[in-house]
Amino acid sequence: MAPPNQILGEKSREVPMRVIVHGLHRTGSLSTRTALHQLGIHNCYHMADVFANLETDAGLWIRAMQSKFGDAGKDDKWTRADWDKLLGDSQACVDVPSAFFTIDLAEAYPEAKVVILNRDPEKWYESVNGSVAPNMKPTSAIRALQHLYLATLLPDFRQWTRLVKAIFQYCIPFDHATEKDKAIAWYNESYRRVREAIPADRRLEFSVKDGFRPLCEFLDVPVPTVRDEQTGQVTDAPFPHVNDRASFDMLLRRRTGERMRRANRVLWQRFCEAFTVAALGCAGYYVWKGRWGVRFW
């Protein structure tokens, strides 16, 4: 049970913050999250956690963005206690929105190590352009109408649209589909700032292609191993590879389908409720008329 003064959905610090990963969307963030969980470092907060808790977490992230990037940010920097409300049950974080705040989080949690999750900027741009960007900012009238339909009927999707609006207002000030140079410059600048702010002995330059060993050595945890069934030799376990573009598209279709089914159920329920109210109203009217001896036809 939450403390009496704690807002529903807000957390308090339950586990130590151990790892802050500066990994923007489509840099291997979900693979890294899976790897950290495999190493016993969990929960690793990811956009997947936002989706799972939209009605509570989206509003907190919007407040964090307004505090840092809005006018209020001049006097309203988030403290460790503020971040604990979002990340109190997490030992690590990766992906956006947390990657928008890597430096702030590193200051709030000085005991945490920082992993810089790298990907070639050109490949990053193409990956985002073919996956995340069209989902966040619809590029067709049909997709825009679909988003409007979902936002009208589903409270959690309304929170998602609010969060997306805040992300583009405060954090991603360009059109990814049409402003490639700005997108790549923004990407490179975000990494430059983190490298400039975080001492070299506190950070690890890492790519999912590097495998477990450099990450485990940096975090001072054992390297997971597997035994080769043919040779019997024990080798480093393969680094997880999840959420490639095909998997992302499949997940998006499944998530959209589930949302559409929920929205359709809500619409049908509202229709039935309206029909019932109308029917009862008509019945009541005829009963009232009949009571006074009025002919109906």
Number of helices: 12
**Fourth-tier CATH superfamily name of the domain at 19-135 and 173-242:** P-loop containing nucleotide triphosphate hydrolases
Low-confidence runs of at least 5 consecutive residues? 1-8
Give the C-alpha Rg.
Answer: 25 Å
CATH overall fold name of the domain at 19-135 and 173-242: Rossmann fold
Tell me the strand percentage band: 5-15%
Tell me the major beta sheet.
5 strands, parallel
Helix content: 55-70%
The residue-averaged pLDDT reads: 87
Overall strand count = 7
Amino- and carboxy-terminal Cα gap:
62 Å
Largest sheet, spatial ordering of strands: 2-3-1-4-5
Form type: elongated
Transmembrane segments: 267-288
Organism: Claviceps aff. purpurea
Pfam family, one: Sulfotransfer_4
Keywords: Membrane, Transmembrane, Transmembrane helix
Account of the 3D structure:
The protein is of the alpha/beta class and 297 residues long. The protein has a domain at 19-135 and 173-242: Rossmann fold, CATH 3.40.50. Helix content is 55%, strand content 8%. The chain has helices at 29-38, 47-52, 54-69, 80-87, 102-108, 121-129, 132-136, 141-153, 155-171, 180-197, 212-219, 245-291; strands at residues 19-22, 44-45, 92-93, 113-117, 203-206, 225-227, 234-236. A hairpin with a 6-residue loop joins strand 6 (225-227) and strand 7 (234-236). Helix 3 (54-69) packs parallel to helix 9 (155-171) and helix 8 packs across helix 9 (155-171). It is elongated and about 85 Å long. This is NAD dependent epimerase/dehydratase. It comes from Claviceps aff. purpurea. The chain crosses the membrane at residues 267-288.
